[in-house]
Amino acid sequence: MEVKKDILWRVYLSYFFIVVVCLVIFSRAVYIQQFEGQFWRNKSDSMHQKIQEVEAERGTIYSEDGKMLSTSIPQFDVFIDFKAAGLREKNGERFYKNLDSLCFHLNRVFNKKSKEAYRTELVDAFVSSRTYYPILKNITYKQYNELCQFPLVRLGRNKSGFMPVDKHLRLNPYDLNGARTIGLDRENAQKVGLEQTYDSLLSGVSGRRLVRYIAGGVSVPIDDYQIEPENGKDIVTTIDVVIQEIAEVALHKMMVKNDAQHGCAIVIETKTGKIKAIANLGKLKKGGYGEDYNYAIIPSEPGSTFKLVTMLNLLEDKKITLNSLVDLNRGVWNINGQTVKDSEKHSHMLVTAQQAFELSSNVGMAKMAWNGYGRNPYEFLRDIHRLRLDTLTGIDLTGERNSIIHKPGGLGWSSTTLPWMAFGYNLELTPLQTAVFYNAIANKGKMMRPYLLKEVKYEGQSIKTCLPHVAAEKICSDSTIAQLQRCLIGVCTNGTAKALFKNTAYPVAGKTGTALVADKNKGYENKIYQSSFAGYFPADDPQYTCVVVIKNKEDAPVFYGADVAGPVFKEIADRLYTSYVQQKHNEPNIWKSDSSYFSFAGSKQAVKTVLNTIKLPFNDDGNYKDEMVGISGNIANVVLEDRNQSDKYMPSLRGLTCKDAVVVSERIGLRVTVRGKGRVTNQSIAPGQYVSNGQLLTLTLD
Length: 702
Fold this sequence. Notes:
Elements: H1 2-35, H2 37-48, E1 49-54, E2 61-62, E3 68-80, H3 85-110, H4 115-127, E4 133-140, H5 141-147, H6 157-160, E5 162-171, H7 179-182, H8 193-197, H9 199-203, E6 207-213, E7 219-227, E8 234-237, H10 241-258, E9 262-269, E10 275-283, E11 289-290, H11 307-316, E12 325-327, E13 332-335, E14 338-341, E15 350-352, H12 353-358, H13 362-373, H14 377-386, E16 404-405, H15 417-422, E17 427-428, H16 431-442, E18 447-448, E19 453-458, E20 461-465, E21 470-472, H17 478-493, E22 509-517, E23 528-537, E24 544-554, H18 565-581, E25 598-603, H19 604-613, E26 628-634, E27 637-642, H20 658-667, E28 671-676, E29 680-683, E30 696-701
Parallel strand pairs: 2-8, 28-30
Antiparallel strand pairs: 1-6, 2-3, 3-4, 3-5, 6-7, 8-19, 9-10, 9-24, 10-11, 12-15, 13-14, 16-17, 18-21, 19-20, 22-23, 23-24, 25-26, 26-27, 29-30
């Protein structure tokens, strides 16, 4: 009996403790829920929420005449929160009521799934109470606006659960033309070109927003907190898209014809130093040619185009005159155990210094340099420094490389370095440095710093203007400049480029160049030649300076500068002379009356903002299907009208700005090329015509 009581006592005691523990736990749970619940809910949210930077809309890069070279267009990802209170009211009555019509429109506009597939997917997600369920990815701004009018979606976020996440896609309306100079803005990769140089201007100031992280690491914004970003500034470049296209086409044609490795063509406006075009083409691994590197700012042995530097030094230092005689010895000269040879065999013996230059004689230039500077090579190097060829040009492109100029006592200097330097070997210059030097000769000795940025704009207003900058007021005397110009014209009339420019309608001044270049660590055994031509036109009133450099394939049958780079220069010069120089003073002035009938177009919000700002009354029924609207009439009767755009049929783009027209065209899958400036006056695909994805559209602006 005593044993039984002892056991029962222990059982009751244990039971008592269990009851007490349960009461404590229950009390604690009630306390947490009623008094600390909000604290712990906030704590939970803080572990899944974060302040995230909102990237500002990147600024647009324009050509000098207002054409877009690089711009951003909006894209959207769309999620649905099936836990939204308004969506689940009355057991989802609102959801099921709009479901069929919603699926119909999703299929009609996006056509990625059947109506039945959309219905099954949405019902499953609703039943599972999915949070932030991804429904659409990478939709365009036009598609997003149309989505906002769908059944259920138009009821708003709280009742539909639909939540958009916006982002921006960077595109180049002119495809690869000048892509390496304009640059690339790549996610998680190094920017290049102007996109890199002016990244701080283009990128703007990021905003901030509160986001919630869901499964898969996806972040979805929460409306409670957001600071709007400050959009990037626009930059206007000195690039002319027509000149860029001319240079690109001419270079590409010769690259394909000669199966060359890579090449570049540079066009500079002589009097200002503005870069009007830089074409860079390299052979791609997948075949064909593309803008892979900016060869214009990568140094290499210049070859005979450097002979102009040698001539300038000799003339300026009074070492020679143009009539000084030099013995070419039939194109062969031995010095310090090495042999200098002219590129082609000939029978010339005693010629003038000017004739040696026009014939591009290596022997003639080496002899004159050796006789003038052999005892004091520092004098020759001093002149190179005075010409700023041993420094960067200062162009506003990140990545410009320094030239390579050897000096006595250095590893690259030997007893034959000076004579070889005289005709462009044993040193390296960038094609851009050559172009800047030749431009100074064309510009009567005034050396201009090359530049690409003309203006910075913010919201259409100019906030900074870049003017031409003189790098050196005078690189040599007027007498020397006149003699050098005479030599360059002589090359094109009597020398190595005589056949190339025979019967040309305008005078040309230039110099051919051919250099045997090293093939990486293989040396010179593969016989790879670099062809070049540097010059300006018209020679009697220089407007443009152009340099073309092409690196040929191994053992190329055609490699002389006059045969490879020369024709590219000539094609560029012919087209620019006809299109720009010859017509320069023949452009008619067109005046338009302020009271005449007008017709423009633009985004709905922008048009309304402008009209309200200038307090111009307009007729507006507010019934628009599209984001873009038309505005027509006169001052007394302004009418806003729907433009009735479609994904399958070509809309009317007449009256749109270049940017709006490109955005609209890109949204329906068209590839766009643009001619002229101003607003759209003509389009190659007629309004109402059926269009297919990837179709080419040409817009004419005026």
